[in-house]
Amino acid sequence: MQREGCHAMMTSRTSVEAMHASRYLQQLCKHWSHKFQTDISPVAGTISLPAGTVKLAADEATLAVELSAEDEAAIERLESVVAEHLKRFTFREELVFVWRRSDA
Fold this sequence. Notes:
The chain contains 2 helices and 6 strands; from the N terminus they run βαββββαβ.
């Protein structure tokens, strides 16, 4: 049983092949930086959204995404919103998102 004030966080992760992973990471962070708290570098980014947190990491060939939220509905929403936005930025290549969930 959970105590009041203690929330188990859910996480969802994916790693996608992307020729321009750093560019996509930076575009997503900059896109949301006007409304939400973001931290950004060419190889890492964090976006604090109302539904949860998005962490990104990029290398030469891969974009890794980790989502954290308080419940399954929020995780589902984040998976959808993040994938949709990244697909808009990556019209030159097709990214495939396979999310893996766990309780944190």
